[in-house]
Amino acid sequence: MTISRKVISYSVLALWLAVSLVFGQCRAELPSWDIGLYWQYSYGPPEVPTTPYDTITSSIEYWVLARVPEGIYVLFSIYKTAHGPIPFLAYADMQSPYPTVASRFEGPVVFQAYAFPLEVGKQWVARPGHDAEPVVAEVQGIEMIQTGFGTFDTFHVRYQQGATVISDLYYAPGVKTFVKQAGERGILALEESWQFTPEATLATVFAVLEEVSSSRPDLTLEILQRLIELGIGQQQALSMMDELLTPDE
Fold first, then answer.
1. 8 A C-beta contact, residue 87 and residue 76
2. Domains contained in the chain, CATH given
3. pLDDT band with cut points at 50, 70 and 90 for residue 102
4. Residue 222's Cα: distance from chain center in Å?
């Protein structure tokens, strides 16, 4: 699928100025996401796959679609796989980079990956322990990380459960999220990040749904229903849903 580049792209100079200012203070403040913000990550599966998608996924894309009243963002995500794209609606908040794929939003994201402002040496409980030890996060330091999208100064956050390192994550203020993550969920590395217009974002969503509607009709209908409930592109979603539900003559 080809995405139009008639969008508002990030200025490289502005990014570097923002990063320089932030790292001059050695802290990262709570960011905010605009509608249309986009990230694409290359994906390397974990040694022990945990989902059916782990062994066939090559990249993952995210678009910010909306913000719901609870302060949670609605994201449109695409798993690029050997069997074609698989779209999902997901939820994320500013304390967690891991979108939660679910048919309904049922409460705050349970894994607190960030605790802004980020500062070297800061610790917090990322996931409380119930039947097991809690997962504790700590900002290890500031490190330079190179990805397919460029080189970034990042805050290195490590997550441990007891003596076991679960994951290492590298947060870059310039792109308002992590640029690399490595651990039990595999390896994600940032390949692209753009600021699309809301109109271009919505057009992409429906283009993808149209592409997969014949091969994944149930998933397409589920996403369309959620878009209608959330008030996102309602008229177009209703029209597409009607076409899918109308039997061919």
1. yes
2. 12-195 (2.40.360), 198-245 (no CATH)
3. low
4. 20
